[in-house]
Backbone:
């Protein structure tokens, strides 16, 4: 009963923090407005690119996750952590890396031209999808990999001893349970595409709903139109999330002894090729950014380090608040409520919060807390998608046993549940911190000059055409983001029972 009360309270808090700003924008705008033909076109393109981006990301992630799950090699843990870098990078930093590799004067086109092969064109719909796959393939790999690692080793041993088909007996049921949720989360992320569409898309044929909302705010200050588009985006996101929750099934195969068994099935060469191509696709743009950033470190202004400290404060605060809300929300209903966070435009949330706090305090005085809260709302769906399967499995497999031993409350969580979800908790905490480190959106609406975060500082340097310093700041931001992710992810995997 107490746990149910905590879950309901957390869900109401999350829903209120999302619905409140949207309502404020709608109220100030004077109600809904009809969508124009351009808005309908943007809606169609948004759904189209989100579907293909999510589908390609998940399809490519399955063989990569399978290869990582059944092959042990030197540097595997480090490779898994580094391969997650694109998703946790600031969008503009990653786009610079993609342009360096796939752009008109990028490394790949420089190799294709002498061979007489057609040049790649990164701008337009294909560029938007390429960037989304680059960002979301690591997330899909990690979500699916967690599913593989959660299969008890005893099941593989029994299947091997019986000569049974491992894929159809064990892996296919797991994929049916994990893949729909991964697809839906990535689909919703791509629905809210802004920086990618602005940089690589744009124009009438490659405009997303989020970009249309930005145009309504920036150029027309049409709050009614922005709110109407935000509600459409919200309905799309909730529909996709609800479908994923409906398709997700619990693990009905019983409990194991939490040990991972070495695998001998499958082709080692094919697994190596899958891992190698994925690593090359994801790491080449990062290397390009790193090379350009090293030369810019000497041009960094001293204000960069203060901005870095503020970004770290936001990241650590977001981790604490997200994990506090995630544990009581780790139910199907709680995950559904959390999907509001990535279903609503971040621009609308920021503007709505500005309108709410404006009568009481100066918005710039609460810039950091508001930025932290918005990052928590954006991160919760990812965190719950990572945590909920493990918590529900631990509760179903060991809950009654723990209670029969007299364990309850915090003792039950500390002894029974938390050790079995330590690995996904570390990954979720690292992901939350890294995303908060690289956030650029809400802070631009609230921050006063000289009090911004590191991503905002990087944008300011770019705006002043100090590109070498901007690359240097981007390198610092990448190192800090990866560092926060690595510390928590490594901490979660250390001494974990699964």
Residues:
């Amino acid at each position: 009963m107490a746990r149910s009360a905590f879950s309901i309270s957390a869900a109401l808090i999350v829903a209120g923090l999302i619905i409140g700003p949207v309502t404020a924008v709608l109220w100030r705008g004077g109600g809904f407005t009809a969508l124009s033909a351009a808005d309908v076109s943007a809606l169609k393109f948004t759904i189209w690119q989100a579907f293909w981006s999510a589908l390609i990301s998940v399809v490519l992630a399955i063989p990569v996750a399978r290869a990582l799950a059944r092959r042990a090699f030197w540097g595997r843990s480090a490779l898994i952590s580094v391969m997650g870098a694109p998703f946790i990078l600031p969008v503009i930093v990653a786009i610079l890396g993609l342009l360096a590799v796939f752009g008109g004067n990028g490394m790949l086109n420089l190799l294709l031209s002498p061979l007489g092969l057609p040049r790649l064109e990164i701008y337009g719909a294909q560029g938007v999808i390429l960037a989304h796959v680059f960002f979301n393939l690591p997330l899909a790999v990690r979500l699916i990999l967690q599913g593989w690692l959660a299969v008890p080793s005893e099941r593989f041993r029994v299947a091997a001893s019986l000569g049974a088909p491992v894929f159809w007996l064990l892996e296919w049921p797991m994929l049916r349970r994990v893949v729909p949720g991964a697809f839906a989360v990535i689909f919703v992320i791509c629905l809210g595409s802004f920086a990618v569409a602005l940089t690589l898309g744009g124009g009438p044929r490659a405009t997303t709903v989020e970009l249309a909302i930005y145009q309504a705010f920036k150029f027309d200050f049409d709050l009614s139109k922005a709110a109407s588009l935000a509600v459409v985006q919200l309905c799309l996101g909730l529909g996709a999330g609800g479908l994923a929750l409906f398709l997700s099934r619990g693990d009905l195969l019983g409990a194991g002894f939490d040990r991972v068994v070495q695998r001998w099935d499958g082709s080692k060469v094919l697994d190596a090729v899958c891992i190698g191509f994925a690593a090359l696709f994801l790491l080449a743009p990062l290397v390009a950014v790193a090379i350009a950033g090293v030369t810019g470190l000497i041009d960094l202004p001293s204000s960069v380090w203060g901005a870095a400290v503020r970004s770290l404060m936001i990241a650590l605060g977001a981790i604490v608040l997200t994990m506090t809300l995630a544990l009581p929300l780790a139910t199907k209903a709680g995950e559904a409520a959390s999907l509001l966070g990535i279903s609503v435009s971040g621009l609308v949330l920021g503007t709505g919060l500005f309108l709410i706090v404006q009568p009481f305090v100066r918005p710039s005085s609460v810039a950091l807390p508001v930025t932290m809260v918005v990052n928590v709302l954006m991160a919760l769906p990812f965190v719950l998608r990572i945590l909920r399967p493990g918590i529900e499995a631990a509760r179903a497999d060991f809950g009654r046993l723990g209670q029969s031993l007299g364990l309850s409350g915090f003792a039950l969580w500390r002894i029974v549940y938390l050790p079995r979800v330590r690995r996904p908790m570390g990954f979720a905490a690292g992901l939350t911190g890294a995303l908060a480190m690289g956030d650029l959106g809400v802070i631009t609406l609230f921050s006063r000059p000289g009090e911004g975060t590191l991503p905002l500082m990087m944008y300011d340097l770019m705006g002043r055409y100090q590109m070498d310093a901007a690359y240097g700041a981007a390198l610092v931001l990448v190192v800090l983001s990866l560092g926060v992710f690595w510390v928590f992810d490594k901490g979660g995997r250390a001494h974990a029972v699964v």
Q: What stands out?
A: The CA atoms of residues 134 and 281 lie 8 Å apart.
